[in-house]
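Because discrete structure vocabularies remain unfamiliar, it helps to consider an illustrative case, giving the amino acid sequence and backbone structure tokens:
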Amino acid sequence: AIKLGKDTGTISVSGYFFGAGLPAVNSLIALEGKNFWVDKVTEQESNTEFQKAEITGKFWEGVDTKC
């Protein structure tokens, strides 16, 4: 294997969110010690008590701040 750069990765999380606000695009979410930049948030507002949502994001090793 050849490694030319730092580690990268993606995340996709889906589920039901109760009362808590969803993260915004370009915000950071932490999962298992890595910070993922949110690039897409899709929500289905079919109920007033909870929302079904899907969040996708990207991870770049060593990138913790935005411009």
